[in-house]
UniProtKB/TrEMBL annotation:
Protein name: Fatty acid-binding protein-like 5
InterPro entries: Calycin (IPR012674), Fatty_acid-bd (IPR000463), ILBP (IPR031259), Lipocln_cytosolic_FA-bd_dom (IPR000566)
Keyword terms: Lipid-binding, Transport
Entry's family note: Belongs to the calycin superfamily. Fatty-acid binding protein (FABP) family.
GO molecular function: lipid binding
Domain Cytosolic fatty-acid binding proteins intervals: 7-24
PROSITE patterns: FABP
Length: 137
């Protein structure tokens, strides 16, 4: 995963993302705004061994700092509080988010030299969400 640290990836397309936003309860206006964004994602390794994953766009900027495999409290860009665990397996960052209502989402971000593909699934959602990112070097 080291070779992908510090690389910025900008979103260039998606499949079924609006369906996911509806499923998790994002309102109409916020959902339509989210669909216009082309966020940039970046994963970095901190001196203390933790990681920081940042999400930046023209409307919302957020980041989460975490230790691999250890549950932490996270506030998603839509303001919902979740319990999260992130692990890394090869070139994949696996991010599991559990809401207070028990709903669980799983985001697998697969890193490549020229792109990143984020695949999201959620219990009860009958679609697979894909978001496509290009590396900005």
């Amino acid at each position: 995963m080291e070779e992908f640290l510090g690389v910025k990836y900008v979103m260039v397309g998606s499949e079924n993302f609006e369906d996911y936003l509806i499923f998790i309860g994002v309102g109409y206006i916020a959902r339509k705004a989210a669909l216009t964004l082309r966020p940039t994602h970046c994963l970095t390794l901190n001196e203390n061994g933790t990681y920081t994953f940042s999400f930046n766009s023209r409307l919302v900027n957020s980041s989460v700092t975490f230790a691999l495999g250890i549950e932490f409290d996270e506030v998603k860009p839509d303001g919902v509080k979740v319990k999260s665990v992130i692990t890394i397996e090869g070139n994949k960052m696996i991010h599991i988010q559990r809401e207070e209502n028990g709903r669980t989402s799983k985001h697998i971000r697969e890193f490549f030299h020229d792109k990143m593909i984020a695949t999201t699934t959620a219990e009860g959602l009958d679609k697979i969400v894909k978001r496509y990112f290009e590396a900005v070097r």
